[in-house]
Amino acid sequence: MDALSNWEIYLHSQEKDPIVQLAVLKAQFELIHPFLDGNGRIGRMLVPLILYSKGVLSSPTFYISSYLERNRDVYYERLLAISREGDWNGWISFFLQAIVEQAEENCRKAKAIIDLYNEMKQKIPKVTRSQYSVQIMDTIFFRPRFNTNNFVDISKIPRPSATRILRELKEKEILVVLREGHGQRPNLYEFTELVDIIRE
User: Fold this and answer.
1) Across the 200 residues of the chain, what is the mean pLDDT of every consecutive 10-residue run?
2) Structure pTM?
3) Which domains does the chain have, with CATH numbers?
4) Cβ distance 3 to 55 under 8 Å?
């Protein structure tokens, strides 16, 4: 508890460089290891929350997990080097590189999503010939995996029109059916082009 109290005091202190401060906070949290399970997940969640609280981000939406997963061995080695050798510089260098590379990856994904949105802005009105093109776009970009009921609820498109639109989007391979509906269970759809960008 003393270690966590010290961690909290440092969290609320003002450092010259909040990203270096975040690097220290992240390592300290992992080394304190306050919970029996879930420390890694919580530690990764702390990254965007701390960046947001320090005013570095306008919303807490920076995900560093994919970089840390790709470099898992180095990640653990850098953390262990703090305990074994007091090598904070090695950890901070690794963490700052993680932030830079993840930010670049996030920017690439954001650009790819914007490009896909602009492409669909041309394509969907042609495919559906519908007055609901804006609602269609907003719905499939807001929730790229959904069932028929979700689509109707989110888009506010009347069910008969929504059913026709989903059929047309499936025929033109804009949407993929992941699970065929049966009885009361509706079809499960995926906007795979968007999901693929997110998964990359």
Assistant:
1) 94 95 97 91 94 95 90 96 97 98 93 97 96 97 97 97 97 96 92 94
2) 0.78
3) 2-105 (1.10.3290.10), 129-199 (1.10.10.10)
4) no
